[in-house]
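so i finally got all the pieces together for this one. its two components total, 778 residues if u count the protein bits. some of the lines might not be protein, just check the labels. i wanna see the whole assembly predicted at once instead of chain by chain like last time, that was a mess tbh
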Amino acid sequence: MKTRRILSGISALVIAATMAVPFSAFAEDTATKTINTDGGSDSTNVIYDATEKYFVTIPAGITLKDTAVTADITTSNVIIGEGKIIKVTLSGADNTESGNLFSAKNSAKNSTVSYNINNGTVSVGDVIAKFDKNNLTETLTFTKTDDAIPTRAGKHSENLTFTIGVEDDKTNVSGVEIDNKTTIATAITRGGTLNLTASVDESATDKTVVWSSSDNSILEVATTDTGVTVTAKKAGTATITVTATNGTPEDTSDDRIDSVEITVNPIMYAVSFSANGGTGTMDNVSVAEDSEYELPTNGFTAPTGKEFDKWQIGDNSYGVGTKVTITDNTAVTATWKGVNYAVTMGNFTNGSVTADSTAKMGDTVTLTVTPDTGYELDTLTVTDASNNSVPVTGNKFTMPNSDVTVSATFKSSIITVSGITINNAPTEALFVNSTGTLTATVSPDNATDKTVVWSSSDPDYVSINAETGEYTVMGKKGYGSATITATATNGTEDTSDDVSAACTITGKVTYTSLSPGTVLHVGDTFYAGQVYFATKPLTGFNDSNGVITLVEDNGCYKFKRGNNGTMPNVTAYKVKDNTDGIYIVSGSGTSTSDRFTIAVHTTN
Amino acid sequence: MKKTIAMISALAMMTAMAVPLGAFAEDTTKTLNKTTNSGTTEVSYDVASTYTITIPAGITLSADTDKPATIGAAANLMLEDGKSVVVKLTSATNTSSGTTFNAKNSNETSTATYTIKSGNNTIGLGESSDYTDVVATFGTSTATQTQALTFSKATGATYAGKHTEQLTFTISVE
């Protein structure tokens, strides 16, 4: 050991004429001070620097036995600074990286004998002895344990490394613990605070602790006189650590720490729901602040005739499924809209009805009714989904709170005839060739089609215009009666709804026989069986010729056959101003040999 | 006619226990000081070898069939790493060398010969490259270990009666 002694003597006093010069304690011995002639004094430092020295003896080897064995660590010849100590540290072990259970291994490292030191109170890295003066001894006890069962026979060993050093004589903290760690709240709500304190062993020289947060944005720490106040700043998890630094924060090797993980829960806001006229309830939902909440499906029962429209929060509307950020207790109100109910048309015959296909409750629905030609609306009904009748007024109805079905029936718009009367049926027989017009009155007066069709039972006796009712007493086969029928057909071929009336028109002739002295005037008729006139040419008539009518034709009197309208060429009988017909001069009988002589009858 | 020859071995059971040895390092001290501020201490412990080997107490040979036998090692046989317990046939009362063993009657006027195999190895006395005296080798194991032996049919006896030979097995750790 190198020892250096510094001996100093008294330096020579050098007198100088100038002022004294400040002098460093460790100045070179050759330096001088000057005291001037005016007197005075100065000092000279006498210095001796005792060299630090110390010896620590450790055992070279320890043989474990089935019982505990001891070994001593001792010091000797210790000269160290005041307030200093010699610290002996178990700084390493070949087979034991850490902890207090040590392992001796065989050379192949495949078999282990376990042991501890000082009943397990010594771990790798621990300071096992502190010495501050000579000849102190620290005894270590090595105890073989059964924690490891050797699998091989033979020597098992481990080298323990001890390191010594001179340090300040202070007692470092052996540990620091957050007080009440197992019972303190490990979850607090954002904005909340938590006061923590920590304890270190009483023997520690410097009990200074430093608090820190692994994430100050989540947990903020503020040191107090007694500990720390932890303030929850935002949701999340952070670790609060307390570190006992032994007063040397720059040296972390001897730090002891403890920590606790604390979760900051967000503030939970209530999301409440309002039915806004609907019925039912929806449970409030608790939502973490600043988190997104997905608006749910409506759970209320809508007001009558309404259906859910949107959720309203404040002045804003949102659809179901919209995610909103919850920053406070939030009232969510259901808003409703009218239900579009279906207006369904039934199957219509003979007409149609149209309307808007949907309508909301309370809407006025107009039904447009279009009957087919000849038809008119008969019934128009609207029924709701429960088959209840919905009032219809003026082809309009008010939409109920359900779908509706429109039904309509159409009926014929024709007013059929119910009766007919012939107004002017002749009351007595009419001469052949007489004409007239029958009229009929059809009832009811508002019948849709009052057309009358006229017919004769024997047009050879009486012919009649089917449309006009103009009739002619005919003499085609003589004279006789015919039944005239007036029929109101409603203008259709369908005879089922026909009504009719009848009258009889009877024909007559002016003469049924001819005899001398008879004057036949134009228009007179006769039907007298076989009649032959002894005129040129010979002209004869019989019943098959029908009723014979004296007519004027081209200035002549002629006899016109009733059956076919022919007129024998009897030209000898001119019409003159003083003539008024044909005069039966003579004759009688009906055979071809019987002849009637005729002549023009004059009036003067 | 069937003959039965009995043989009794000399060792019924051999047990060996390793004895803890003394310190492997001098339990002296080392001195540390300011300049030599660290040193090592060797902590050591010697784990004793442990093994129990069982050999057959007797084998009754047959003139007609081979006879099986077993040499076993008890469970938890523990040796130093790389070491084995070796069981050798080191002597026989009537056979000095070779692979043909001799069981004799009490008057030694009749000899029945036989051979021994350990597995497929022929066992013999004396050094030879044709056979071996190692009848079994056991290593460290927590399980029971066995080695099958086969004693051949005995032949050549000229007198009836009990013929015997004592075989001596010796164990060692190698």
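The radius of gyration of chain A is 74 Å.
Chain A touches chain B at residues 1, 52-65, 71, 91, 102, 104, 106-108, 110-111, 113, 115, 142, 144, 150-166 (CB under 8 Å).
anyway lmk what u think
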